[in-house]
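Reply to dn_fold:

You asked what the input looked like. This is it:
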Amino acid sequence: MSAEVRDDEVVALLQDLIRNRCVNDGSVASGQEVASAGRIAALLEEAGADYESYEPEPGRVSLVSRIEGSDPEAPSLCYLGHTDVVPVNESAWERDPFAAELVDGEVWGRGAVDMLNLTSSMSLAFARLARSGFRPKGTLVLAAVADEEALGTHGASYLSSRASDAVSTDYLLTEFGGLPLEMAGRKLIPVPVAEKGSCWCRLRVSGEPSHASMPLRTDNALVNAAGVVSRLASFSPRPEIGETWRAFVEASGFDAAMQDQLVDPERIDGLLASLPDLGLARQAHACTHTTVAPTIAHGGSKINIIPDSVEIDVDIRTMPGWTEQDVRQLIAEAVGELMAKVEIVEMHDDPPTASPSETPLWAALEKVTARAHPDGKMIPFLMTGATDARFFRRLGTVCYGFGAFSDRIPFGQFARMFHGHNERVDVESLALSAEAFEQLARDFLS
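and this is what came back:
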């Protein structure tokens, strides 16, 4: 792969999207994706492409543009990117997270990894196709959406339920796949075909108020909550070995003994507890377990009052087949007798989704991927986080996570930058992705 690959147009687009600071903290007024929607709209206008804007709340703008196909029987394809980013602790970064500096061939900034790099590449590929007068047999759709970093309520969820005619396609590509993974002497190209469910819970832990100057034998909700958090954090449901994980392990190149342990529900936990590669251990654990992560606590009213109520937010990611009732049983099992002090006051359950990998689009992606990585093998993968693909899988759309990335930033380092410090992406990956999305449309839809 040439180290000289560069595309200044996609670099500039990414820099503009980063500088727009479309930070989504989960509140209705945050995000303000109208800024980046406007930038992409200008790109589409220059290319002569029509588009529609959708604004369910002030400033929460999504764009949809279509290149209509000539054959209604031909497959249709959507490029789906989001324009919002998560909040950032600016003091922990080495560089200004919204300056979008280009340093040593890498663009720095919040969203450079998640997922403004792909949103930029998809948008530019679509615009270039429109500029060229591309007239495919199958329809191509570009959707640049708001609110992915919360629940998708004002973005993909809204479009899939309220404007499905504009965005419904046979196939869809979104984040995150295509990053090369070196494993046991082999180059694998993981492409997510499924994702775990998200069940976000709020637990209220009770106690009795009293004066903090006399704490003996008090029923302190904060102390009770500490026990609940500790039990939840240490709880690990039984491993579940799915076919996607099994196929990944078989393609990995690990020796036979390690492969056997990675797909054995009786032995995998022991292996992960001692595996020196922490990144692999975390990924393997998340791909084979429903996971439980306490993330936020609120409670107490004054330093000299024993609190009578503390709320805990818990992020639970469910394996295929899990239901809301299964999650309730998990919480009760993990917390034990402390459950007498616990009330589940909120639960947002987004079940797991999956798509088959034996499709014409999969074959087309293999062809595109081979241009960037002739020595790589594309493999199906389970996405452990949530993406907007879930809304469209429920409409019957086959969805994959895809991009084309260079070898410059290792898989583990790239993955750690999701919602982390010092996000950055190399310019070669931006160019490769823009080229891949353009060529894929020509190969698959013509």
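The two ends are 27 Å apart (CA to CA).
Hope that clears it up.
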